[in-house]
Structures are given as structure tokens and as C-alpha cells.
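Reminder to self: C-alpha cells first, then the designed residues, so the page reads top to bottom the way the pipeline ran.
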């Protein structure tokens, strides 16, 4: 199926810097982008929606949120508290992080599986997803997000190879 949703996260970038990135992307792909910051660009560029970190989520009036928004959760308890306000939620770290070596798996996968059967929302596993761990993602998850398994490669061609290898595995699950 390919890359369905791209989360654009560039900490420290200004709105102008983010716009430079968006301008360089073919218009037909903009609808697949979730913005982590500078949410005002979502409507301007016809992007998919907004992502809210735990910090951005606090003290937020959810009635003002766009229809499509996502968030990140770092425990099953947190997920159970916030899921209803979002189209989908990331939960992490499900496995030991690849991009952050000190960020160890903290999600009880058995507890997560039980919770997933009772939540009518989409949950995306994040953290340590690579060719070894992808088959171990709970089957009730809507999907899995990859970061380190792709971006740790220095060459773009190797990044693409890594993504395509993961896509083949995902297609078989």
C-alpha cells in the first residue's frame, strides 16, 4: 500500500521553514501529511490534519480541533484517557527504540492487546519497529509507525530499501 500517512515533525523549525518543505512536496501527497507543529498550515496546504504531543494536548479545547487529529500516548492508562478525542493514537515505546537508545520498551503488550479490544479507535504501535519486531505488533493495532529503522540509514536508497522491506512484511500480516 505504501506510505499512507507521513508525520512531519521538525522541532525548532519556524512556520516559514515548514512551508519551504511543504512547497517541495507534490500537491497530491499533501493530503497524507500530519503536522506536529504550525497547525495553521493544515488548512492553508490541504494537509491531512494535526498531531498533538502530550504537552500540546494539555489545556487544549478539543472542540476547536480539526476533524482529523492524532496524538501520542506513553502508557495504556494514558491511551484509555484520551483516545476518544482523536482519529488515531500512537502508543510508544512498544519495543526498545532504535533512534533513542536509552528509550526502552515501556508498554505491556498483553495489557495493550486487552485494551485494544475495547477501544473503538485506531491505535498505531511506535517505538523499535523494524523487520524483527513488526510481526510482534499486536494484531488489533491499526498499524505501526517506523522511524529509526528507516532514518538510521545514511543513504536515501538504503532508507527506501528499509521501508520497502518493512512494507513487504506488513503486507503479509
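Designed residues (173 positions):
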Amino acid at each position: 500500500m505504501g506510505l499512507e500517512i507521513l508525520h512531519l515533525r521538525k522541532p525548532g523549525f519556524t512556520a516559514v521553514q515548514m512551508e519551504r518543505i511543504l512547497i517541495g512536496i507534490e500537491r497530491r501527497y499533501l493530503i497524507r501529511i500530519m503536522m506536529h507543529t504550525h497547525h495553521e498550515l493544515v488548512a492553508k496546504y490541504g494537509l491531512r490534519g494535526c498531531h498533538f504531543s502530550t504537552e500540546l494536548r494539555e489545556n487544549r479545547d478539543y472542540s476547536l480541533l480539526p476533524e482529523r487529529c492524532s496524538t501520542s500516548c506513553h502508557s495504556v492508562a494514558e491511551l484509555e484517557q484520551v483516545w476518544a478525542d482523536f482519529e488515531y493514537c500512537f502508543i510508544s515505546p512498544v519495543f526498545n527504540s532504535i533512534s533513542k537508545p536509552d528509550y526502552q520498551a515501556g508498554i505491556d503488550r498483553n495489557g495493550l492487546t486487552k485494551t485494544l479490544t475495547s477501544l473503538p479507535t485506531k491505535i498505531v504501535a511506535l517505538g523499535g519497529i523494524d523487520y524483527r519486531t513488526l510481526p510482534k505488533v499486536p494484531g488489533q493495532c491499526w498499524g505501526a509507525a517506523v522511524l529509526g529503522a528507516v532514518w538510521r540509514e545514511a543513504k536515501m536508497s538504503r532508507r527506501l530499501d528499509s521501508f520497502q522491506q518493512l512494507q513487504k512484511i506488513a503486507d503479509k500480516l
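The mean pLDDT is 88.
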